[in-house]
Each structure stands twice: as C-alpha cells, then as structure tokens.
Amino acid sequence: MTAEERPLKLTSSPHIKQSEDVRDIMFNVTMALIPIALFSVWLFGLSALLLLLTATAACVLTEHIFCVIAKKPTTVKDWSVIITGLILGLTLPPGTPLWMAALGGVFGVAVAKTLFGGIGYNCFNPALVGRAFLQIAFPVAITTWMPPMLPGRFTSVIPSTLTFPFAKMDADAVYAYIHRAYAMAGIDGVSGATPLSAWKFGEPPQFEPSARLFSGMISGSTGETATWLIILCGLYLIWRGMMNWRIPAGMLLSAFLLSGAFWLGDRVAYPNPFFMLFSGGLVFGALFMASDMVASPMTSSGVWLYGAFIGIVTIIIRIFGALPEGVMFAILLGNAVSPLINEITQPRVYGVVKKRRAES
Amino acid sequence: MRGEPVAEAGGFVSTAMHAPVAGKVKSLDRALNARGEMAPAIVIEYDPDADQEAVHGEPRDITDMSPDDIVQAVQDAGIVGLGGAAFPTHVKMKPPEGKIVDTVIVNGCECEPYLTTDFRVMVEHAKWIVEGARLARRATSADTIVIAIENNKPEAIEAMMEAAPKDEPFVVRSLATKYPQGAEKMLTRALLKRDVPSGGLPSDVGVACFNVATLAQMGQLIPAGQGLIERIITVSGGGVSRPGNYMTPLGTSLRYLLEHAGLTEKACAIVNGGPMMGASMPSLDIPLTKGATGVLALTEEEMRDTSRQIFACIRCARCVDACPMYLNPSMLGLLARKERYEDMAEHHHLNDCFECGCCSYVCPSNIPLVHFFRLAKAVNRERSASK
C-alpha cells in the first residue's frame, strides 16, 4: 500500500511538537511534593498523614463534583488539584482538625478555582485561598503547633485532629497531650511554639539557630519546616524546566536583603536574615506556591518584580504586622497584582517603536 | 529545448519562467498548487527524443554590467527567493527610492529542522554563492557582505571562509543555532543589532538579505545566461527510505520525487516545506515550485504529539519566552478563542507574527496558537476587504 491509497493527514503547522504537556508538568510537581510530604509524616506522625490525605481528598472530590455539575469532563486527572490538596495540607499545622482541612480544601477549590473556570483561570492560588479562609475563620486551630519528633506520634493522633466538626478547638488538650507524651518517654519537653512566634512573642525574643531551622527539626506547618528538602525538590523542578526560577530567586533575595537591612540596623530586636529565610513558610512558599504558573506574571522582568514584591511584603508583615508569619498573605497579594505587573512589563515587540504619550 | 523561456515577467514584482524539460508546451491550464489553490500553469509535454542535458543560454561577460543590467538579468533568469518565500529576488536588489542599502546578508541559517539544502549548497557551491553575493552587492551598492551561518555547521563555515576572497569586503559570521534564526528580521538583529520596523522591509534599515541557494543560482545562472529550471530539495522524514537532497526540476510532482526517494506506507502526511512552517499537502499530484525547500513524509510517530488533548492555558509563559518577535501568544490565543480578531491586530501586534510556530511547539496545553493566528489574520483580511 502506498500513501496515496489512504487519505493524507492535513494539519496546521507546526507539524512537530515537544511532547511535554500540562499533565506532565503537574505530575512532576506532585512528585516533587511527595518527599516533603513523607518527611513531614516522619516528623509529625499519624496526624500529618491523615491531614494530608483529608485535604487532598477534599480538593479532588470538590473539583470532580463541580465538573459533574457543570457537565464538563472531569479535570481531576490533570494532577493540578492534587497539588492544591497537598500544598493545603502541608501549610496547615499538623494538629489541624481534619474537618477544617476538608473545609479549607472545599472552599479553596470551589471558590478560588472551579468558580473561576478551573485550571488556568484562577487568579489566586486555591490552596492559599483555602488556608487564608481557615486562618481567618479558625485562628486558634491554625496557630496551635506541635513539636517535631514527639514520642508516640505513630501510635496516637493529636487530640485536635479528630475534633467533631464545628466543635470548639481545645488547644489545652493539645498541650496536655504533648506534655503527657514527653512525660511517658521520660524526656524534657520542648515548647510547641514556632521559631517565628518565639521570636515575635517571646519575652525576650528567642532566636532558633539557623542550622536547626535548615534541618527542619522545628515546629511549624506540616510541610514547611525542612528547608533543605524543600530546596532539593524545588531544584528538581527548576532542572526540569517546570518552574520559573526567577520567582523564588526574586522572593528569597528581596526577603534576605530587606531583613538583612533591618538586622544591620538593630541586631538585638531583629533576627538575622538567615533566620528570616529558613523559618516559617518562606522557602516552601517561594518554591511551591508563589511559583504557581497560573497566578504569577508571564514576563521575565515581571516575575522578578513579582518575586521581589512578595519577599518584601512577607518581611514587612513579619516585622510590623500582628501575625508572626506573612508568606501566605504576601503571595495572595502578589497574585492580585500580577495582572498589573504583566501590564507594565510587556517587552517591546520587535520592530515596534515605542509610541510617545503625546501620540497615543 | 531545456531552459528556454516560456513566460515573461508581467510587471516589476514578477519574474520570467523557463522550461524545466525539453518538450512542447501543451496547454495553458490551471493546476492545484501547494497552497491548495487552482493556479495558472503551463503544461509542458516531455519529449523523449530531445536532449535533456543541454540547457538554453549564452554565456556573457558580467564584469561591466550596470546595477540595472544585473537587476534585469536576475528578473529574466526567473530567480526568486529559494529559502521558501519565493519572492522575486531582483525586487530586493533594487532598493526603493531614497533607501540606501549598506549591507548584503547572505543567509546560510537553515530555517527549519529536517532541512539541509542550505547546508549542502554552502559546502558544494560556495564559489557560486560568492559570485552571486558579488552581483547582489554591485546591484544594491552595498559596502559589506555578511555571510551568516549557524554554529552547528562548521563544514559550511569552513567552506565559505575558504571561498570568500580576502581582498573583498566579505565577513563570515557564526551565529547561535536557534530556530528561527534564518528569518530576515532575526538575522538583521543578530548580525547588525538593527530591528526591521513593524510592517517595514529590511531595506528600511539598510539591509538586503538573500538565501544562499538563491545566490548560488544567481552566481551560476547570470554568467551562463541561463534561467532557473531546477533547485535542491530536501526529501526527509520517517516515511521515506532514501532521504536526501535531490536536484529537482521545477514542476516535478510530489509523487515522482517521493517515489524516487522511496516513499513507504509509514508516511501519514506530506509536508511541503519544513516541519515548523510548511504546509501539509492534500494530494501527491502537486507540482514543486521555486519556493519548495523540502518535502517531508512524516510518520504517525513523528506527528504523535501534535494531536494531543488540548488543555486550558496555564499561563506558564513558555510561549512568551519562545516568541522571537516578543509578542504575547498566550494573550493572543485567549483573544482568538473569544474571536476578538480586530483587538488582536490593533492592540496585540497580531500582524507582526510571522507564524514561525515556536509558540505552538512549546505549548504544554497543546493549544494550536499559530493556527488561531492564521485564522485571525485571514478573517481580518476578509473584513477589511469587504469594508
């Protein structure tokens, strides 16, 4: 048989294409989050595992249900909603009540993603919208922390994890649980306060050493503590060309410089810039949340601006704000300004002379 | 006789045509061309008894031809841009009134993957290219000749270095290998840091740009007094068993050339041109014309990724990074889906897009961006024509 006997394929150029598609990118981001998730389960135990599973399941189900309601083919297979679920779980404290995590997932995916039109159309990072919702609605639960490596973490769950939906969060029960766990193991307890709140609210301010922050052996949000691992996983995505490295670079650099300037001004009141970088969610936020393709600007100069903006806002919130942590709101603000950044950073089109204001 | 003129130029932006075979003009007809239109054609009946070796034409002395003589000779020889556009070459050699051309660019940057005609021409016919470039320089009164070659072709660079006379203003420049480096606009920026203005021509910035194959033909045909009757065509792709560069008489059908190159049943699409900008052919009974740089017989395997599921744009910005014209293909794509074609042209520089295909190639959402843009341009053309 020669080609003439069957119809020739008529296609529009280009006739060749690189093979990587949206699913491949989202799958790789998911894979990059898995080591971070595993490490967090090792640090915080059974509760962390349940938290991650619940958040992810809630997000996936929400998207699926909305697709069914909209009579569209389900989009859960593109992996993006799994990323949302994992990130939501990883940014919540390990003892977050499961029902809250589920609620945050439903809210984030439903309001910030599907109602905007699904993947590609969300103006804000859905995981962060979910988390912001929880932070505002349930401030106590979202600021009740666990120390890492608590004895017995694989055989029992944190009491708050299984709180009945809409029941009051009993923070004292959590502290009693921590105390009991240490007592049974016969070791001295460590406080559950995060390094950031220990600095901000401590009397006098306490500074966790940077090496310890880097190792991840601190209390904090489930998946935000292990700086070294987060950087490794982020580098994998950058190496695969699936993350714009300028965003984390701009964000970390600006946060480092600004907090460095404060530190040089007053070394007693302000922590050194490495503390600022490695504490809280800055590195995780820079590599896995601010870099969300959909809600970040598209121009190369724009992403630098966007990264720098988020870094600066984070440090300003941390130093002057009422909250010890500012990454989440900084990124959401960054998402909000990214259309504007796009607008002002459009590169000059080849061969087009910039019109002067008078002419236009 | 082979090479006898069969058509005269019908105006300044047109050229003569010469018989690619010895035979008899049978009819003036219409034939399906590579654009899918029924275009006017001269049908020549092949004469089995005629001498197919001899070519019509008288050698002439080119040393004291004036610029206008050269332009006229090029028009009479039927030479057009052999890089693919098939724009009459003599038009480019006569800069518009008041425009001064100071540089002739010899374009040795193979425009697309798969194609290797320019490479072979540079390696085998460097002398003719130099001769053609000299003529182009004399016709345009340019100062320098810049030969641009991508750095993945060291053999071609070497051949051109050797052929370029040291006592004449020839410069050989090696450029990064990067599609679409061979586009005129990209070349003028890469070589001279000059931007061809939007909607303008290279002559606006003092440049005349010629493909190496065009110049080689010029360097060969003008002194010999002959006309353009054949060209080198790359035949490639997984669907042919003997890929290679074939010296092909103009007017040869796709079928003849492909069967000669060993077309196999694995081929599922035939592309006239390169894989990035070429057009897929509806039939094998289409004659090859002067602008045919390559013929590709692509297999399902090679085209596999072009028919994948289309996702929503995730604003990854790969198209923005890829666009050589610094357009925003993502935004243009969104507007195209909303059929806001006029908006695309007025506010988003749609007409500066030269359809290189980079944005479609990199898009992980598999959005057929170039296709949208082509459609948008066509609709805009139609709308403005009906106004």
Question: What are the secondary-structure elements of chain A, in order, as H or E?
Answer: HHHHHHHHHHHHHHH
Gyration radius of chain A (Cα, Å) is 23 Å
The helix/strand order of chain B is EEEEHHEHHEHEHEHEEHEEEHHHHHH
SSE-based structural type of chain B: alpha/beta
Percentage of helical residues of chain A? Answer: 55-70%
Structural class of chain A: mainly alpha
Name of the CATH superfamily of the largest domain in chain B: NADH-ubiquinone oxidoreductase 51kDa subunit
Given this structure, which CATH class of the largest domain in chain B is correct?
Alpha Beta
Biggest interface between protein chains, with counts per chain? A-B, 46 and 71 residues
Number of H- or I-type helical stretches of chain A: 15
Q: Would you mind describing this structure in some detail?
A:
The complex is a heterodimer of chains A (360) and B (387). Chain A is mostly helical. Helix content of chain A is 57%, strand content 0%. Chain A contains 15 helices and no strands. Chain A has helices at residues 22-44, 46-69, 80-91, 98-113, 126-137, 139-142, 171-185, 195-201, 210-215, 227-239, 246-265, 273-278, 282-289, 300-320, 327-344. In chain A, helix 1 (22-44) runs parallel beside helix 3 and helix 1 runs antiparallel to helix 10 (227-239). The longest helix of chain A has 24 residues, at 46-69. In chain A, 54% of the residues are buried. The model of chain A is unreliable at 356-360 (pLDDT under 50). By secondary structure, chain B is of the alpha/beta class. Chain B folds into three domains: 77-224, NADH-ubiquinone oxidoreductase 51kDa subunit (Rossmann fold, 3-Layer(aba) Sandwich); 230-302, Ubiquitin-like (UB roll); 318-386, no CATH class. Chain B is 32% helix and 19% strand. Chain B has a five-stranded mixed beta sheet with strand order 10-9-13-11-12, sandwiched between helices. Chain B has a four-stranded parallel beta sheet with strand order 7-6-5-8, sandwiched between helices. In chain B, strands 1-2 form a two-stranded antiparallel ribbon. In chain B, helix 1 (67-76) crosses helix 4 (126-140) and helix 11 crosses helix 14. Chain B is globular, with a radius of gyration of 21 Å. The N and C termini of chain B lie far apart (49 Å). The chains are: A mainly alpha (360), B alpha/beta (387). Chains A and B meet through helix 1 of A and helix 8, strand 11, strand 12, strand 13 and helix 13 of B.
